[in-house]
Amino acid sequence: MAIISSNINESDSSRPRKDLKIVNSQITRENKFNERNIANRPQSLNEFIGHEKLKASLRISIEASLFRKECLEHILFYGQPGLGKTTLSLLIANEMKTKCKITNASSIERPRDIVGLLLGLKENEILFIDEIHRLGKLTEEILYPAMEDFKLDLTVGANRGTRCRTINLSRFTLIGATTKLASISSPLRDRFGICHKINLYSTNDLQRIIHNFSRLINLKVDQEASFKLASCSRGVPRIALRLLKRARDYSQVINKSNYISLEIVEKALINQKIDNKGLDENDRKFMNFLCQNKGPIGLDSIAASLNEDSSMLEFIIEPYLIQIGYVARTPRGRILTPLGYSYINNFNF
Fold it and tell me: Among 124, 201, 234, 247, which is 20 to 30 Å from 98 by CA?
């Protein structure tokens, strides 16, 4: 069976017949994959892998809210990108048996944007704002009474016609996610009743995530291969799944197979110039520059020498190198630690 769709008005008979479009009603392979992908995502906190203490704390808050038949307190999640802050927010909505509306702070350009979002919320619904530290000051001011008293205090009119108006809102839950907790103003941060940091994942948890996703995309991953991928993922599931896809590409092109072995993973990592520590070419360039120019070096000098943006070095490259103890920040600049010197001197790719 086929569906015929057309934008032709009945009164306009002069348009050629080529404007008609035949649409096949059968489900394509792409649609099947998207449906299966959505169906296999975690639907409850029990299916969410890792962070057992965090899940236990959230479960208590959720069950208490359901017992009181109230909306959940406002929640703030913070941590590195790719750790599942958005996924957790969707799972909370599923546990609360309500809807979750998702937006990004960068898309809320004017105060009236947040007003429209708040007015559109129904009782006990959840509003998730990603990168909430990017909200403008005026938008934050509107959120204060909305979060505390569930009302909007607006000023309408101009000059002598100016007047204040208060609009009552449905009781809702605001979930904010940020990668920069310190960038959120204290008045906004203090209005979140629940605040959780999402830490990096363990290697075992990343292995489970890799195996779950591999079954979704019809891959067979060897145990050693999954351990190798997990150990090179910097504790971030998003990186683990990205490396798994690159190994899949390599296996399907070179071996014409959906089987991922340790050998395939090692070759794929070499192809991506990623070593056993999860460091890539940009990380090694950063460390090589510090090694060749001994002594503390300012970030702007490093960025100019490497032809990179200083913010990219500061927020993308440096954090992991500092975390594993290869680079240190000092008042005079960045230095390479003894571990970093040892890595560079013994590096063999």
Answer: 201
Name the segment(s) of the chain with CATH classification 1.10.10.10. 281-346
Residue 13 is which amino acid? S
Question: Where in the chain is CATH 1.10.8.60?
Answer: 203-271
pLDDT, tens digit, 9 for 90 and up, residues 181-205: 989 999 999 999 999 999 999 999 9
Q: Which CATH architecture has domain 203-271?
A: Orthogonal Bundle (1.10)
Amino acid at 47: E
Distance of CA 72 to the CA centre of its chain: 22
One-letter amino acid of 328: A
Q: Read off the tokens for 104.
A: 């990004």
Confidence of residue 348 (pLDDT cuts 50, 70, 90): low
Q: How far apart are CA 142 and CA 115, in angstroms?
A: 8
pLDDT tens-digit readout, 214-257: 998 899 999 999 999 999 999 999 999 999 999 999 999 988 99
Looking at the chain, which residues constitute the CATH 3.40.50.300 domain(s)? 47-197
Q: Class assignment of domain 281-346?
A: mainly alpha
- Please give the model's pTM, rounded to 2 decimal places: 0.81
Contact 276, 231 (CB under 8 A): yes
Please say whether the structural domain 47-197 has been given the CATH code 3.30.1370.10: no
State whether residue 263 is helix, strand or coil. Answer: helix
pLDDT at position 245, please? 93
d(CA 59, CA 29) in angstroms, rounded, equals 37
Catalytic residues: 85-86, 130, 179, 238
Q: Cα(135)–Cα(103) distance, rounded to whole angstroms?
A: 12
Amino acid (one-letter) located at 217: I
Q: What is the DSSP string of 257-295?
A: SSEE-HHHHHHHHHHTT--TTS--HHHHHHHHHHHHS-S
Nearest to residue 154, comparing CAs of 119, 127, 178, 182? 119
Rounded Cα–Cα distance for residues 349 and 347 (Å): 6
Whole-angstrom distance, CA of residue 206 vs CA of residue 240: 7
Across-strand partners of 195?
76
